[in-house]
Amino acid sequence: MPQISPFIIFFASIITSNMILSNFLGMCSYLSVSSEYKTATGLGMAVTLVLVLTTVINWAVYEYVIVPLEIEYLQYIIFIMVIAALVQILEMGMDRYMPDLHAKLGIFLPLITVNCAILGVTLFMVIRHYGFFQSLMFSLGSGLGWWLAINMLAAIREKLKNAKLPPGISGAALSFIITGIMAMAFIGFSGIFTIQ
Amino acid sequence: MDFSVILRTVGSLALISGALSIIISVAEKVLNNYGTCELDINQGQKKLSVQGGSSLLSTLAAEKIFIPSACGGKATCGLCKVQVLEGAGPLLPTEEPYISQQEREEHMRLSCQIKVKGNMRLMIPEELFNIREYICRVESITDMTYDIKLLRMKLPEGETVTFKAGQFMQFYTKPYGKVKEEVFRAYSISSKASEHDHIELLIRLVPGGICTTYVHTVLQEADQVRLSGPYGDFYLRGDCEELIMIAGGSGLAPIRSLVYDVIEKGLPHKMRFFFGANTVRDLYYMEEFAQIERDYPQFKFIPCVARPEPQDNWTGETGFVTVALENQVDSGDGKEAYLCGSPGMLDACIKILKDKGFTDQTIFYDKF
Known about the structure:
The structure holds two protein chains of two kinds. Chain A is mainly alpha-helical. Chain A contains nine helices and no strands. The termini of chain A are close together. The termini of chain B are far apart. The interface of A and B includes residues 69, 70, 77 and 92 of A.
C-alpha cells in the first residue's frame, strides 16, 4: 500500500470516509443520543477522545505485542479488552481530576466501550497498515467526523421537533431517512481524496 | 493444531488480560483513593470521618445511618434524596429526572449517585437516625400461595422494633449462586405494629428477581438475615370516618398491619378492604380476614377474583378489583384510601377513586 500523507487521511476520514455517513459504524449511539444537540455534542466529544486514545494504544499493542508474538488471530479479543480497560481507567481519572467534564460525559463513557466505530477504526488501521502518525490522524479525523455527523443529525432533529410530520415517520424512521440523505450529500465529496 | 500454538494463545491471552487487570487495579487504587473525608451532618450535630471513593448512600450505611432506598442504588426509585449543602459537585444526568427545580434550589441530591470525594456538609432528617439495622433469625417460612411466602423473623434477644403500621423494611440477601454481591430490596411489614419482637414480610416470587429467588429457594428456617428500617410514609392518617383499603398480591402485607392497628387501638373508623386476585389460587389469609369480619362489624372484607374457574365454586366478587370499587364505593366524602399493589392496578384504582371525589390528600399508596 502506498504511503498516504497523514493529513490527507485526516481530512478524508472526516469528509469522504466518514465513519457514520460512508461506513455506517457506531450507528446505535448515533441514533439514540441525537435527539438533543447538547448531549450529542457531549457524546461526540467523548467518542473523539476515546477513539484517539484507544487507536494510539491499540497501534502500540499491535506493533509491539501482537506482531512479535505472531498472535494476529487474537487481535479482536485483545483490542476489545484494551478498549474496555482504557474506558474504565479514563472514567476513573476523569471523575477524579475533571469532575465537571465527568458530569457531562460520564454516562456516555460506558456506552462508548461497545460503540463499533471505536473497534472499527482500530481494525481499519490494521488492515491498511497505517504507521503511528497515520493512525493518530486517522483516529482524530474519524472522531471529528463522527462528531460532525451526530451534531448535524441532532441539529436537524431539533429543528424538526416542531414540524408537523406524518404519523409513523417520526422517531427512528425519520432519523434513518435524514442519515440517508446526509450520506448521499456526502457522496458529493468523493473524488477529492480516496483512502479506501 | 500444533501444541505450541495452543500454548502461545492461552499464554498470551492470560498475560495480556493479567496485565490489563493489574493496570486497572493500580489505577483504581491511585485514582479512586480520596483519602479520609469529613462528613458534617446537621450543622455539626454529628461528625464522621469516612474513607472516600464510594457512594454517599453506602458510605452512610457503613456508618449505620440508613437512607431509604428501594432500588438499591440504581437511580430508578428516587427515594434516597439527601440535602447536601457542600461538597457534592454538579448535578449528574442520572439524578436530573428525580430532582425538581425546587429541590435543586434546596440542594437535594440522590445519595446513591454522588460519590464521597472530599469533605461534605449534609442535612439528614432526625427520624432517619431511628432507622436501625437488625440481625434477625428466620423463625418460619410458610407458603401462603404457590408464589407467596410468609417470612417470620425473630429479633435478637432484648431488641425491639417500633414502626407505624404500613411502613417497610429493607431486606438484605447474602451472595448466592451467580449473585456475588449483597443486594437489598424493600418489603412492607405485614405483622402487627404491637408486636415488637418479630417482623413478618410477605414475599412473592418474581421470576428472575435476585432477592425473591433468594427468599424462595435459598433461605432456610433458623438462618440469620439482615434487615434495616422502618422506612416510608405509607401509614394511617385517620382524619376521616371510613378507610377504603385496596391491595393485590403481596400488597396485602401493609394493609393487614393497618387493619390490626385500627382494631387494636380501638379506633372508630369503618374499614372496607378490597383484595384483588387473578385466580382463586392467588387468595390467602382468607380465613383470618373472615374471622376479623365476624368479630369486628366495623370491618368488611371484599375479595375479588378476576378469573375464577368453574370448579372453584367461587361465590364472592368476580372481576377486577376496579369493578367492585366502581360499584360499591359511592363517594370520597369522609373517606381515605390506602392502596398497595402493582403500578397497573394502582393507577386504574386511583383513576376511579379520583372520579369519585378522592383527592391526592386522601389517597395514600405504596407502589411496587
